Prior knowledge:
Elements (H helix, E strand, L loop, with lengths): L6 E5 L2 E4 L1 H8 L3 H19 L10 H4 L9 H13 L12 H4 L1 E4 L5 E5 L4 H5 L6 H6 L4 H37 L1
Helix pairs in contact: 2-8
Amino acid sequence: MAKKRALEIRYKGKKLQVGAIADTIAQLPKNIRGAATEVIAKEFVKRFKKYPRYKYVSRGAAYPEVGGFFSEKQRRFVMAGIKSGRIQPGKPHRTKRLQEGWHIEGKNTPLQVVNSEPAAVFAFHPIYQARQLAMVGWKDIDTMTEENEKPVFEKLITWMNKELILEFDRILLKKKKG
């Protein structure tokens, strides 16, 4: 049976366990683990919600081997959308649904950082990420986690220093009263 981690990052079904941070949390006193996990989960969510700067990359540049379209039906659909004005190439039309899709599931430990938006698999999956999104600047979840692990870990250490001092103060006060 696989070891349960304190924090998992999941998008559209894929789970990514955050090892070093989860191992650090496992070493904390039980009454602090849940709060520590919540701190880092919130920090990951905050960092994952950042969109890359807008950059236009044509479908032809992203998929030159098929001329930008995978079928004649797809090409006609896009061209009809451009003609009707529903599709405007070169202009940002971000809905922010991927950004709003990030949330935390669970209470205490284990927590999961989740993006349940159906398009998340094409934006964040290391294998299934759309080539055009990668060229625009979207990073897959493995890269995002790797890049953010150190600053999130530093946030955890800062929080732990503050909280552990407060916890020790509470313990010492109880001993003095008792």
